[in-house]
Automatic annotation (TrEMBL):
Keywords: Signal. It comes from Phytoactinopolyspora alkaliphila. Residues 27-94 are annotated as: Disordered. Residues 1-32 form the signal peptide. This is DUF4352 domain-containing protein. Residues 28-76 have a biased composition (Acidic residues).
Length: 260
């Protein structure tokens, strides 16, 4: 298309130049002949410049079109999703920092466990050693942050209670009757990009439906050590539509892993 247009412009320029030359030949001998070479060159240059401008404009248009098509092909980020996970309507957006270290498998659910980071504890824990009368977890001791991503892996919805799927961590050599201590510090969790409270919208009935394929994430922290494996136990007791516990459908599954 551009070559045809350029050819027409060159022909038009040559035709115009020939006409000027003919008129000059018919004039009186006293008149000096006109120099048409400059006009021809000028017309040809103008034609080439216009042709280059047309090419540049078309290239810009093609680039804009390609960019627009790429933007359309890119999927929009879901406000309640992260990666392959889709968050339940009542929970906060799922967070996935850290490295996955284990998975707990239940009959109709799974819990992915991520080790996120280690930080010194900003304060003493609540539990005290009965022999030394000192905190089991003292200020300055290392604590590890973990993230649990719970997913409904079945084809049916699961009605969860306000306890959701409770995940409890305990070192294999833990010698105390109480469970392991945890430090409450919002700033630390935010720095780790973690959420401690999975429920964003409270249910008056205390029922939190988890549809097939839906997930939620919830974080925790505890004393950090690598000389003993951690036993993570997931406990699920569903409820009916009125929020009554279905104790006969209770599940308890666990996995053992050593932290890095």
């Amino acid at each position: 298309m551009r070559k045809t247009l350029a050819s027409r412009r060159v022909i038009a320029a040559l035709a115009g130049s020939a006409l000027v030359f003919g008129l000059a030949a018919c004039s009186s001998d006293d008149d000096a002949p006109e120099d048409t070479t400059t006009e021809e060159v000028t017309d040809e240059v103008d034609s080439d410049e216009l042709d280059v401008e047309d090419v540049a404009d078309d290239e810009d248009t093609d680039e804009d079109t390609d960019e627009a098509e790429e933007a359309e092909d890119e999927p929009a980020d879901s406000p309640n999703g992260s990666g392959e996970h889709t968050a339940a309507p009542w929970t906060d957006p799922i967070t996935l920092p850290g490295e996955q270290i284990a998975t707990i498998e239940g009959d109709n659910f799974q819990v992915e466990i991520y080790q996120v980071g280690v930080e010194p504890s900003p304060k003493d824990g609540m539990l005290v050693d009965p022999d030394s009368n000192k905190p089991i977890l003292a200020e300055g001791d290392d604590i590890v942050f973990v993230n649990y991503v719970v997913t409904n892996t079945s084809s049916e919805p699961i009605n969860l209670s306000s306890s959701l799927v409770a995940v409890v961590a305990k070192y294999a050599d833990w010698e105390y009757l109480q469970g392991m201590d945890s430090i409450t510090d919002r700033d630390l969790y935010e720095a780790m990009e973690l959420d401690t409270n999975a429920v964003a919208e409270r249910s008056e009935e205390g029922v939190y439906p988890l549809a097939p394929g839906e997930s939620y994430s919830q974080a925790d922290n505890f004393m950090y050590k690598t000389d003993s494996p951690v036993i993570f136990e997931a406990r699920l007791t569903p409820v009916d539509d009125e929020g009554e516990l279905l104790s006969d459908e209770r599940q308890e599954e666990s996995v053992e892993v050593t932290l890095s």
